[in-house]
Amino acid sequence: MSAALETTEGHIASAMRTDAPPAIVLDKVNKWFGALHVLRDVDLQVATGERVVVCGPSGSGKSTMIRCINRLETHQEGRIIVDGIELSDDLRALDAIRREVGMVFQSFNLFPHLTVLENCTLAPIWVRKMPKKEAEELAMEYLTRVKIPEQAKKYPGQLSGGQQQRVAIARALCMKPKIMLFDEPTSALDPEMIKEVLDTMVMLAATGMTMIVVTHEMGFARQVADRVVFMDQGEVVEVGTPDQVFNDPKTDRLKLFLSQIL
Ligand code: ADP
Ligand code: MG
């Protein structure tokens, strides 16, 4: 399968592979925080190379769902299988998942006392046991891809929000993940910085990366998503192409949500 190419409509052609096992499977996943039932029988399969955008009202369980995929949260019922490995209490399985799944948060989560370069080399050196020089070369390669190699020696606090988020993306990529999860990566950014981060994610999509992106950026969803998932009150309510979900909503819940964000 060749890498994805940009088509004339501006849509990034999918690198989705239906001949390979799914990258992620959620099978009747349920999760509670105490008495609060936050994920209700969530079923979702993401193919290798597929890009899925998740949207839905605040509190609908979007963050919880993607945090369960790399086990930042644990689910209580159902199965989650990532790259063929079922999530369980087995620590080796957890280690394997954490190496393969990169995550980018709304709030950047960079280490403030480390330089940009050190932020990017920390996990490759300590988790992947990569020699320092090799880790630094790799980090510079990714910082160049996200277009900020000149910021390598600075500290996060010296960068704009958009630059910090691009560092966070580069840092995740330095672990050479097979899957990238994004949780509202542009919601904390000033409008003028949103585009530079979305452009970085479009670039990543064009490399064929398997991605789940929680976002309400419709333009991004239309350009990149193979499927859009709409969640409400812990349930996956509708799933379809961007066109189906945004232009032809079936449920009142999705119609209401779209009327509020459009
Ligand atoms: P979303 O990302 O769609 O806004 P979340 O997954 O963050 O939704 O939250 C789903 C629900 O779970 C919300 O009602 C939220 O208040 C609750 N919740 C999230 N995290 C916790 C937690 N650590 N402890 C208790 N309740 C939580
Ligand atoms: Mg959230």
Structure, described:
The protein is of the alpha/beta class and 262 residues long. It is built from 9 helices and 10 strands. The chain has helices at 62-69, 91-100, 116-126, 132-145, 161-173, 191-206, 218-224, 242-247, 252-261, and strands at residues 24-33, 36-46, 51-55, 77-82, 85-86, 101-104, 179-183, 210-214, 227-232, 235-240. The strands form 2 sheets. It has a 6-stranded mixed sheet, with helices on both faces. The radius of gyration is 18 Å and the shape is globular. Adenosine-5'-diphosphate (ADP) binds at residues 33, 36, 38, 56, 58-64.
List keywords for this structure.
binds adenosine-5'-diphosphate, globular, hydrolase, four-stranded antiparallel sheet, disordered N terminus, 262 residues, binds magnesium ion, alpha/beta, six-stranded mixed sheet
